[in-house]
């Protein structure tokens, strides 16, 4: 044990080795202390990721913060047991202090008018203050500066030894086994405690068990990440996972994986420098992953969301312009296949320059062609124009027939819904309506065949497909 401690101290105090050599030593796992650090941080990431998911779901983030600070007096008293860093004694002392803090919160909320967040804040500050006072006293002892107890504030993965790994491994095994065995019950208690009570589940005991497991996780993570920042490793990976998926079992897996990556990254970065604490680098790594998920997550990321909104706006602008071209041709009884920029601008109620911009956008999307000041729709443009006009007029007909809304009150609603009607909804509208030949204003509705073929809604000579180059 003494040799490992000396090796850990040596790792933390390196000043002459280049960072590239340090990185290789870490990746190659050449030092026993590095192997213990990697194994410990992996176990920490798994436990914090799994339990943090339940904290995020149950909106109990402040409880994790309170427990992480409340265990500090127990850490100090565990050291007082034999005046050295005994992992088992420190674990027991910290666990007792954490459970005492949780019990104090419960007592305050049950016997006073204080809300839970107020009680948590009081316990967090009070217990943490007691712990700092005890640690300050121990630093004055003859063995105080050599005890390594100061690493519990901000963490130092390089100081992990076999005893710490045994404690962390035992905690990880217990947490995983209990969560697997009671997954359905934990899930039900977390998402719908009322229904769980109806099923006669002992919700109070499951909540107490979750708090106990949380205390286990906090205590086991103290050496690596520190009292101050352990709550961040409970919350940030779980919050990141919630941005990546909306299924809870996947949130658990993602959170555990992100916890491991963040922990290993923090240990690696702290290993590169001189006496760098591990905890802050772990939290920075986790925060970086969260920022990346916030920006680039496929479902909830800001960049994909912006791209989807922009794509939707472009699509709606295209459809509105295509519909306007169709209406101009319809007003001319489809005697031609082209419209002028001025006629389109008048129909869209925009300036000719704005209409020209819309036309160029249609041309770039291969929906139209432009020759001089006249616009002709391509086959795909005609098909989309007929489809959007069909959606609009079918919805107007549905509102007037089924909802008994006046015909002069349905246009604005149809202007919005026409862009989101899917094929299945259109088929359902056709099935419910007794007739689908004309809309409430007497205008013909393009049939399904004409919409697919890109034909106008009127009969007679204009039943032929339009928009094929210069055909007239």
3D architecture notes:
The protein has helices at residues 2-12, 19-28, 32-57, 61-70, 72-82, 87-111, 116-138, 151-154, 162-181, 183-191, 193-198, 203-225, 230-244, 248-272, 278-296, 302-331, 341-348, 352-364, 379-401, 411-417, 423-432, 448-453; strands at residues 338-340, 368-371, 374-377. Mean pLDDT is 82; it is low at 1-15 and 458-472. A hairpin with a 2-residue loop joins β2 and β3 (374-377). α4 crosses α6 (87-111) and α16 crosses α17. It is elongated. It has 472 residues and is mostly helical. It folds into two domains: 2-300, ABC transporter involved in vitamin B12 uptake, BtuC; 307-463, Orthogonal Bundle (Arc Repressor Mutant, subunit A), CATH 1.10.10.
Q: Count the domains.
A: 2
Number of strands: 3
Low-confidence stretches: 1-15, 458-472
SSE succession: HHHHHHHHHHHHHHHHEHHEEHHHH
CATH architecture of the largest domain: Orthogonal Bundle
Structural class, from secondary structure content?
Answer: mainly alpha
Radius of gyration based on Cα positions: 34 Å
Strands in their spatial order, largest beta sheet: 1-3-2
CATH superfamily membership of the largest domain, which one? ABC transporter involved in vitamin B12 uptake, BtuC
Q: What is the name of the CATH class of the largest domain?
A: Mainly Alpha
* DSSP helix fraction: over 70%
Largest sheet features: 3 strands, antiparallel
Number of helices: 22
CATH topology of the largest domain: ABC transporter involved in vitamin B12 uptake, BtuC
> What is the 3D form?
elongated
Average predicted confidence as pLDDT = 82
Tell me what portion of residues adopts beta-strand conformation.
under 5%
Distance between the termini: 93 Å
């Amino acid at each position: 044990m003494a040799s490992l401690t000396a090796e850990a101290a040596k790792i933390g105090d390196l000043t002459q080795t280049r960072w590239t050599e340090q990185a290789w030593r870490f990746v190659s796992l050449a030092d026993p202390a590095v192997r213990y650090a990697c194994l410990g941080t992996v176990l920490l990431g798994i436990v914090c990721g799994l339990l943090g998911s339940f904290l995020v779901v149950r909106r109990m983030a402040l409880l994790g913060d309170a427990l992480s600070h409340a265990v500090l007096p127990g850490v100090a008293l565990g050291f007082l047991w034999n005046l050295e860093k005994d992992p088992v004694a420190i674990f027991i002392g910290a666990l007792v202090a954490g459970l005492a803090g949780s019990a104090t919160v419960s007592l305050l909320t049950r016997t006073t008018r204080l809300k839970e967040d107020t009680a948590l804040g009081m316990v967090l500050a009070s217990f943490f203050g007691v712990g700092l006072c005890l640690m300050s006293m121990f630093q004055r002892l003859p063995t105080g500066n050599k005890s390594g107890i100061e690493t519990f504030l901000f963490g130092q993965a390089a100081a992990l030894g076999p005893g710490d790994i045994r404690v962390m491994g035992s905690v990880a095994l217990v947490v995983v086994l209990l969560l697997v065995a009671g997954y359905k019950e934990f899930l039900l208690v977390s998402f719908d405690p009322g229904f769980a009570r109806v099923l006669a589940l002992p919700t109070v005991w499951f909540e107490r068990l979750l708090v106990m497991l949380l205390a286990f996780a906090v205590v086991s993570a103290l050496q690596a990440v520190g009292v101050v920042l352990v709550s961040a490793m409970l919350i940030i990976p779980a919050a990141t996972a919630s941005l990546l998926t909306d299924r809870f079992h996947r949130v658990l897996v993602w959170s555990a994986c992100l916890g491991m990556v963040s922990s290993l990254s923090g240990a690696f970065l702290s290993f590169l420098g001189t006496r760098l604490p591990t905890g802050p680098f772990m939290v920075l790594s986790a925060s970086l992953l969260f920022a990346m998920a916030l920006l680039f997550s496929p479902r909830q990321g800001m960049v994909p969301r912006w791209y989807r909104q922009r794509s939707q706006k472009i699509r709606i602008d295209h459809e509105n312009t295509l519909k306007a071209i169709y209406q101009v041709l319809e007003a001319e009884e489809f005697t031609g296949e082209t419209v002028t920029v001025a006629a389109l601008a008048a129909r869209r109620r925009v300036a000719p320059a704005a209409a020209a911009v819309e036309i160029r956008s249609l041309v770039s999307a291969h929906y139209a062609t432009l020759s001089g000041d006249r616009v002709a729709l391509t086959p795909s443009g005609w098909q989309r124009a007929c489809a959007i006009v069909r959606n609009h007029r079918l919805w107007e007909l549905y509102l007037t027939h089924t909802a008994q809304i006046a015909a002069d009150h349905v246009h604005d609603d149809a202007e919005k819904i026409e862009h989101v009607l899917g094929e299945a909804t259109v088929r359902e509208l056709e099935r419910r309506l007794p007739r689908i030949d004309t809309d409430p204003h007497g205008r013909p509705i393009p049939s399904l065949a004409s919409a697919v073929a890109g034909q106008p809604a009127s009969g007679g000579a204009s039943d032929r497909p339009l928009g094929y180059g210069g055909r007239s």
